Amino acid sequence: MTVTIRAATPEEDGLIAQQFYQMWLDNGLAVEVMKPDWDAITRDYLQQARRELGYQAFVAEVEGKIVGSAGGQRFAGPYPITFTASFRVDGYIWGVYVEADYRKRGIGKRLTQRVVDHLKHMGCTRVVLNASPSGKSVYEQLGFQPSNSMVLNL
């Protein structure tokens, strides 16, 4: 199986949105908790992130079919960025998704590495992501370390 990883085009935002939505469903979220206009919300976000944060998605193709995607951008929050760029510029990876029939073949790892390379090229000095249980081992293989992120469900 030959897998090609390439930069996604803005015309593929609908596909990126669909795979982002499917990622949530595959991670156990019910359809009922998703907003009915999830597609428009995601596409709007992609356009804004592309303009303001250097967002770029990458897709994995097998025989002309897109079977996975991942994106990344400069991290813009949740607090004011008061560090100098020589100290830290965070990048953020999100929406890493591979269709079920193509998992466990290194595609997610290759997509993630491509996003890391993009963020490094943009001047990011550190990359952050939120790993799903199924993705954690992939990110650890790429050198990601557990962080001090903590969650309190209310």
Element order: H for helix, E for strand: EHHEEEHEH
CATH topology name, in short, is: Aminopeptidase
How confident overall, as mean pLDDT?
Answer: 94
Q: How many distinct domains? A: 1
Q: Main β-sheet, in a few words?
A: 5 strands, mixed
CATH architecture name: 3-Layer(aba) Sandwich
Fraction of residues in β-strands: 15-25%
| Broad CATH class | Alpha Beta
From the spread of the alpha carbons, the general shape counts as globular
> CATH homologous superfamily name?
Gcn5-related N-acetyltransferase (GNAT)
Helix content percent band: 25-40%
Spatially, the strands of the biggest sheet line up as: 1-2-3-4-5
User: How large is the count of helical segments?
Assistant: 4
From the alpha carbons, calculate the radius of gyration and give it in angstroms.
16 Å
Which oligomeric form is depicted? single chain
Describe this entry's structure for a reader.
- It contains four helices and five strands; from the N terminus they run βααβββαβα.
- The mean pLDDT is 94.
- The protein has one domain: 3-Layer(aba) Sandwich (Aminopeptidase), CATH 3.40.630.
- Helix 1 (13-26) packs across helix 2 (38-53).
- A hairpin with a 2-residue loop joins strand 2 and strand 3.
- It has helices spanning 13-26, 38-53, 107-121, 136-141; strands at 3-7, 56-62, 65-74, 90-98, 126-129.
- With 154 residues, the chain is an alpha+beta fold.
